[in-house]
Amino acid sequence: MAFLTxxxxxxxxxxxxxGTEHHWSMTLSSAGLLVLVPLFVFTFGPxxxxxxxxxxxxxxxxxxxxxxxxxxxxxxxxxxxxxRVLIEDYVHGTAREVAIVAMTCxxxxxxxxGLFAIARIAL
Length: 123
Fold this sequence. Notes:
Elements: H1 6-11, H2 19-44, H3 52-59, H4 62-90, H5 94-122
Helix pairs in contact: 2-4, 4-5
């Protein structure tokens, strides 16, 4: 058993060696969503109830397409990190790894589908 001083304990990155990285990732994605969600609401809102042709024409412009794409990308990244913490805290054993892999695949698939849809409309 090693004896560690308080300084030696404080210098480490914590038990998982990635706690600070996760905290910064969640903080930055939260700040990004704080800006992107209102932008998305104000760019998407006027198109509610419009015809399909009008919506496609509107999202063919760069600004609404970029805002929608960034919102999808940052939103699913934030979702993936948050659900991973939830799974790590409440699921144990082999089910934990299976759930993390399944959730990660689902998050990336949903983000890719959303980005593909936006790209298909915009291009």
